[in-house]
Amino acid sequence: MLSDRLALAFPVFVVAMLTALSFWLDAVVGTATPQEKQLRHDPDFIVDNFVANQTGIDGRLKHTLHATRMSHFLDDDTTHLENPRLVHYTEKRLEVTATSDRAQLSSDGEVIQLSGNVRLTRAAVGNQTELVLLTERMVVTPDKGFARTDQPVVIRNGTSRTDAVGLEFDYNTRQLELLSEVRTTWQAVPAAGR
Length: 194
Known about the structure:
Blueprint: H1 2-29, H2 34-39, E1 43-55, E2 61-73, E3 78-82, E4 85-89, E5 95-99, E6 102-105, E7 112-122, E8 131-141, E9 146-157, E10 160-170, E11 175-186
Antiparallel strand pairs: 1-2, 2-3, 2-4, 3-6, 4-5, 5-7, 6-7, 7-8, 8-9, 9-10, 10-11
């Protein structure tokens, strides 16, 4: 009989202990002032497999932003992206794709700071081969179709490789400006067999 009473009392005891523990945790966590809570850098929301599209006033797709995870932080109103992929379409439907390990969006969503294994690719068009830019950090302004970096960059275009420090790239006009320490090498194309 005594063992039956103990068997029935044990779950009640466990529930009472968990309730007391939850009240204690709430009291400890709840002691933070509003200022202390605001200083904490915790995400207020997280979205996995994030996709955002932007269209122009004509309804045509301007750019698409993908990320494996998007986290928004209320304390500084920033948005962090993991494995972002930005695809920009010019008026001539020329596709420019930028990828990296991570990125941060400005609070107004106008500027994207890519970092870690940044790769920007302009698709081949007409008689122009695919253009690939490789760097560690790049700032992209999607609405303006503009990218820039002050970091070392490698540019691969057909059989050429160009190394430079810093660039500005307007991918609407396809104008690329290299800022310093520019060095280009060409690989010879093998002659056709006779």
